[in-house]
Amino acid sequence: MRLRNANLSAKRSLGRLCKKWEGLMMRGAHMMKRIVNIGSTYLCERNYEKAIEHYQKAITLDPNYDIAWEGLADAKRALENRDQSK
Question: Of 16, 23, 31, 50, most Cβ neighbours within 10 A?
């Protein structure tokens, strides 16, 4: 009986840990999207250096987030075009 109770207790603890982990991951996903949105705003304002900085932060959080990579490429291209036109 004690072993059964210990197993149930362990399963409950594991369930709580999984829920906490999911919550932390969701916060990270929301944070990453916010950072990308800030980068996009800077890109629209032609503040390419700040846009690049924010896209790189998002990529650090999730290297597989394609939108951040695309934004980074757009910002770098725009910065290069601006510098070449001077």
Answer: 50
